[in-house]
Specification:
The protein is built from 29 helices and 27 strands. The chain is an alpha/beta fold. It has 7 domains: about 100 residues, DNA repair protein MutS, domain I (MutS, DNA mismatch repair protein, domain I, 3-Layer(aba) Sandwich); about 130 residues, MutS, connector domain (Nucleotidyltransferase, domain 5, 2-Layer Sandwich); about 140 residues, MutS, DNA mismatch repair protein, Chain A, domain 3; about 100 residues, MutS, DNA mismatch repair protein, Chain A, domain 3, CATH 1.10.1420.10; about 220 residues, 3-Layer(aba) Sandwich (Rossmann fold), CATH 3.40.50.300; about 45 residues, no CATH class; about 35 residues. The protein has a 7-stranded mixed sheet, with helices on both faces. A 6-stranded mixed sheet has the order 3-4-2-1-5-6, sandwiched between helices. Strands 11-10-7-8-9-12 form a 6-stranded mixed sheet, sandwiched between helices.
């Protein structure tokens, strides 16, 4: 930080800045938050506010940028979204009550992962802070969403932890100083990172911190025994909350473990390639977007979690399916539940506000309405005929005492904050009612005193006024001063009048002048009492919030199934996947109105149809078929109905995808390296229950290298001797169709295409048998490729196919033959393949100029001139 002249104010600023040198410090000065020096430059760039300079002693000047304090909710989110840590330094005393420098202190440190600001948080997404602890034997990780109170931990090898972090996608990651290299090499998710000192990462410190917070004798009740690294990681998160001044965290009521064997493992490639949570293109749709019909933010967050963590527990899957099916049958119950859900606010985040003492009067109105609606939902569930819903209603709590208290204490049209209007209802406190009446009627009361005294004294021009010296007074003109009663006390003599005070007037003055302060004090007291009483309800409200969010998800799946014609799949522990006339849940929603989706059936098992080798041209629907199979399996295992006529899904423990290819330039990896990395990850982690999708493997290298590698990978999946993962392998390499003859569990399929009068018609239907033609040139023509290039490509293809046929005839049908390449260049009009043969007048003109030059007689100057002329033809510049 640049040298700043140490005036008393700037000395105070420097002291605050030293506490969090890496954070942007918002320094409260009067009605503004100010930033100085480098912070001011940063703030002006991110917030778009004016950067100024002011004189600063020997330092000449200091940069300055600020904004009004009431605009904090507008500007703070922008800083946090830019990945900045923001320290908020407030005035800790009223400037009017001190003649010295106002005391200031940092009241909060806001970071991307520690955030309670409504304008920064996304309603339908969690805002997780993650912590990681690495030991020689394993890696521990913990996740905490301060805005909802969710606290999770897990432990395993580095790959498992990387998958968890990628799935949960925290906004900020804490790590121990010295583990930077490990995290950069093994944690693929990119987010804000903060390092803590190594003394934070001890088992004793973590246990003590967690036990103290939960008020328990040990952590055994949370099921984290033996998970030392996970517990240390969890402890580091609580330490970080202390560091960032977030100490009111009573809404964090439990620590849950993430059991890896309870959920389908989805790696980052699968989540990305299947577009589960976010589309690959801006104009695209994710699976979550298509199926999310939840009506509460809590439901939206829970459904997102369900999609990220499909289940392996058949009983739990069946319970969800039963609930969805019940909503199908009992429309009245479904409608009543939805009506109640629409009146429920974000109970989880309201509890975070309550615990952190950030809740406002209007938040209490939302809490009141939400608790009433949740209570209605509990009653509807208890009256249903569903065992699942009746069981859920028993887990919910009666909170009528709290919402009735809120209804009695808080007015319906309450302001956002105390002090910005009446928040406490009439009838709650007699003194408050009296003060409000006095404050509202103070002018009328003074007029009544004036009129009464005028009548009693016979002074017609009597006047009551106020000044800051002696408050309210009665002013009497000199012509009537002989009528002033002896009980009046003279306070001031003017040229033409005198001013008096009376005991009654002083009494009213105290009431009127102090009314606002007393009103504020009483409202604050009553509101604090309400907050304290509500705090005891947090565990009960959180149980209701969990049940409400769950019902919202189940109702969403029922609505989706009804609207999109989904069916209930059979999910069991078999090793079979059978999908009858399945559809891609996202693509069918993007079709033009009235255009049907061409459905397809898929049969996979470990004995006869382990590997489906699928060929067909680009745009024929191979990729869609692969993805729809995986999405149907995933939907089935989150308990949803699926887009098909029927489906039988044997539990899948892992879904792997190798689809698409793009260079990872930032890491120096080519398309082929990316392909091989993802393929290796699949082969090293697959199991007997895995579902593997390979789409065009080997495109990143030469054709024959690609064929060889693809052949070897498929052969390994078939012949490894340990597992038989069900595999869909889409390829352009028609040579791989030969594998069906040798390997008994490989079956050839193709996505059918018809050629009618030289045009390609994509049937998008899966048929038995391999395809012998890719129709790539036809696709190029559809894409708008110039006719001359399409024509030439046809000629080259014919020559290659002829050469390949000759090679195959001479080598007994094995993988072979590049075709006869040497004469391809002569196949067009007797010329070598040349850009001069394109149908372009400009290129023809350049060719003619070159052919007309006698190089032997050309001087150096003439050569340069000719070259300049040719260049001018191309650029259009003389």
């Amino acid at each position: 930080m640049a040298k700043i002249a140490e005036t008393p104010l700037m000395t105070q600023y420097i002291e605050m800045k030293k506490k969090h040198p890496d954070a942007v410090l918002l320094f409260r000065v009067g009605d503004f938050y100010e930033t100085f020096s480098e912070d001011a430059i940063t703030a002006s760039e991110i917030l778009g506010i004016t950067l100024t300079r002011r004189a600063n002693g020997k330092a000449a000047y200091v940069e300055l940028a600020g904004f009004p304090h009431h605009a904090l909710d507008s500007y703070l989110p922008k800083l946090v979204r830019a990945g900045k840590r923001v320290a908020i330094c407030e005035q800790l005393e009223d400037p009017k009550l001190t003649k010295k420098l106002v005391k200031r202190g940092i009241t909060e440190l806001v970071t991307p992962g520690v955030n309670l600001n409504d304008n920064t948080l996304r309603p339908r997404e969690n805002n997780f802070l993650a912590g990681i602890h690495v030991s020689k034997s394993s890696v521990g990780v913990a996740f905490l969403d301060l805005s909802t109170g969710e606290f999770l931990c897990a432990q395993g090898d580095k790959d498992y932890v990387d998958k968890l972090i990628a799935n949960i996608a925290p906004k900020e990651l804490l790590r121990m100083h010295g583990t930077r290299q490990f995290c950069e090499e093994n944690i693929s998710h990119k987010c804000s990172v903060f390092e803590l000192e190594d003394w934070v990462y001890t088992s004793d410190a973590a246990n003590e911190r967690l036990v103290k917070h939960f008020g328990t004798a040990s952590l055994k009740g949370f099921g984290v025994d033996g998970m030392h690294e996970a517990v240390v990681a969890a402890g580091s998160l609580l330490y970080y909350l202390d560091l960032t001044q977030h100490t009111n965290i009573s809404h964090i009521t439990s620590l849950a473990r993430i059991d890896g064997d309870r959920y389908v493992r989805l790696d980052k490639f699968t989540i990305r390639n299947l577009e589960l949570l976010n589309p690959l293109a801006e104009e695209g749709l994710s699976l979550l977007k298509v199926i999310d019909k939840t009506v509460t933010p809590m439901g939206g967050r829970k459904l997102r979690s369900w999609v990220s963590f499909p289940l392996l527990d058949i009983e739990e899957i069946t319970r969800r399916q039963d609930a969805v099916e019940y909503f199908f049958r009992d429309v009245a119950c479904r409608d009543r539940c939805e009506e109640a859900l629409r009146r429920v606010g974000d109970l989880e985040r309201l509890m975070a506000k309550l615990a952190s003492n950030r809740i406002g009067p209007r938040d209490f109105v939302s809490l009141r309405d939400s608790l009433r609606a949740a209570d209605t939902l509990r009653n509807v569930l208890s009256e249903s005929g569903s065992e699942v819903f009746v069981g859920m209603s028993r887990e919910m709590s009666d909170t009528s005492q709290l919402y009735e208290t809120i209804a009695r204490v808080i007015v319906d049209d309450a302001p956002n904050q105390l002090g910005r209007g009446n928040a406490i209802a009439a009838g709650v406190d007699a003194e408050l009612d009296e003060l409000r009446g006095l404050h509202a009627n103070s002018r009328r009361a003074l007029e009544e005193i004036r009129d009464r005294e005028s009548e009693l004294t016979g002074i017609p021009s009597l006047k009551i006024a106020f000044n800051n010296v002696f408050g309210y007074y009665i002013e009497v003109r000199n012509t009537h001063k002989d009528k002033v009663p002896e009980t009046w006390i003279r306070k001031q003599t003017l040229v033409s009048a005198e001013r008096y005070i009376t005991p009654e007037l002083k009494e009213y003055e105290e009431k009127i002048v102090g009314a606002e302060e007393k009103i504020s004090a009483i409202e604050n007291r009553l509101f604090a009492e309400l907050v304290q009483g509500a705090l005891t309800f947090i565990p009960r409200i959180q149980r209701n919030a969990i049940a409400t969010a769950t019902v919202d998800c189940l109702l969403s799946m029922a609505r989706t199934a009804e609207e999109y014609r989904y069916v209930r799949p059979v999910v069991d522990d078999s090793l079979k996947i059978s999908i009858t006339e399945g559809r891609h849940p996202v693509i069918e929603r993007r079709l033009p109105p009235g255009e049907p989706y061409i459905s397809n059936s898929v049969e996979l098992d470990s004995d006869g149809h382990q590997i489906l080798m699928i060929t067909g041209p680009n745009m024929s629907g191979k990729s869609a078929l692969l993805r729809q199979t995986a999405l149907i399996v995933l939907l089935a295992q989150i308990g949803s109905f699926v887009p098909a006529e029927a489906a039988h899904i044997g539990l899948v423990d892992k879904i792997f995808t190798r689809v698409g290819a793009s260079d990872n330039i930032s890491s120096g990896e080519s398309t082929f390296m990316v392909e091989m990395n993802e393929a290796a990850a699949i082969l090293n982690n697959m199991s007997n229950r895995s579902l593997v999708l390979f789409d065009e493997l080997g495109r990143g290298t030469s054709t024959y290298d690609g064929i060889s590698i693809a052949w070897a990978i498929v052969e390994h999946i078939h012949e490894n001797g340990h597992f038989r993962p069900k595999t869909l392998f889409a390829t352009h390499y028609h040579e791989l169709n030969e594998m069906e003859k040798t390997f008994k569990r490989i079956v050839n399929y193709n996505v059918s295409v018809k050629e009618i009068k030289g045009k390609v018609v994509f049937m998008r239907k899966l048929e038995r048998g391999g395809s012998a033609h890719s129709f790539g040139i036809h696709v190029a023509k559809l894409a708008g490729m110039p006719p001359s290039i399409v024509k030439r490509a046809d000629q080259v293809l014919s020559r290659l196919e002829e050469g390949s046929k000759n090679d195959n005839d001479s080598q007994d049908g094995k993988i072979k033959g590049k075709g006869d390449m040497k004469d391809i260049g002569k196949a067009r009009d007797g010329y070598q393949l040349s850009f001069f043969q394109l149908d372009d007048p400009l290129l023809s003109q350049i060719r003619d100029r070159l052919l007309g030059i006698n190089i032997d007689n050309l001087t150096p100057l003439q050569a340069l001139t000719t070259l300049h002329d040719l260049k001018s033809l191309l650029t259009g510049k003389k």
